[in-house]
């Protein structure tokens, strides 16, 4: 065997030995613990400082927080509890709980709903109810007046019969006919001994009658003439001032 052939054989055997040693080697990957890292650090870490889950013991994961990487118990992927139904447009009931983040914080089938006063737990409503609450009847509410009780008889116009609207009386809400100024002028205030507010605006009076001042309150009366609306307002204001004087 010549020296050249001998050298070639030695080189071949060396390459084959290297190939076999590479194929016999196993490729290792970092240890992965099942589960997910929690959003916030709420427990005492079992170890401070780690690079992979393999650096942690007892089934903990290596998680990174603002304070740095630590070993903590993993959490499962959970989704917030969703209660069927919708949040009402207005807060009309006493909440079962003040303060919540998700429906899961509420009990008894209530939902976590946000109002001006903050998030609270209240019973859900249907989509039909949401649509009803959003319906507004034509017309305007009369100005709030004193002398009415602070009791709520409606929450939206849909709670009121016929063409009545749900209006504020300065304390709560009640059903009333929309604010109306009918044609005609109020007669001179009648001398009525019993003080009473039987009406607050023309819309609460039947047919062509207007809500006119009396010597002690307001009552529905037949108008005189068909004057200009602005003139009517002036005359009625003068009548009120005359009564008060």
Radius of gyration from CA coordinates: 40 Å
- β-strand number: 11
Order of helices and strands: HEEEEEEHEEEEEH
Predict the CATH topology of the domain at 81-133: R-elafin
Q: Globular, elongated, flat, extended or rod-shaped: what is the shape?
A: rod-shaped
Report the CATH superfamily of the domain at 81-133.
Elafin-like
The CATH architecture designation of the domain at 81-133 is Irregular
- Content of β-strand: 15-25%
Low-confidence spans: none
Number of discrete helical segments? 3
Q: Which structural class matches the secondary elements? A: alpha+beta
Q: N- to C-terminal separation?
A: 142 Å
Biggest β-sheet: count, sense, barrel? 3 strands, antiparallel
> Strand order within the widest sheet?
1-3-2
Signal peptide: 1-25
Pfam families: WAP
InterPro entries: Elafin-like_sf (IPR036645), WAP_dom (IPR008197), WAP_four-disulfide_core (IPR050514)
Protein name: WAP domain-containing protein
Structure description:
It comes from Sinocyclocheilus rhinocerous. It is a single chain. By secondary structure, the protein is an alpha+beta fold. Among the domains are: 81-133, R-elafin; 138-179, Elafin-like (R-elafin, Irregular), CATH 4.10.75.10; 181-230, Irregular (R-elafin), CATH 4.10.75.10. 19% of the residues lie in helices and 18% in strands. It has a 3-stranded antiparallel sheet, with no helix packed on it. Strand 7 (165-168) and strand 8 (173-176) form a beta hairpin. The chain starts with a helix and ends with a helix.
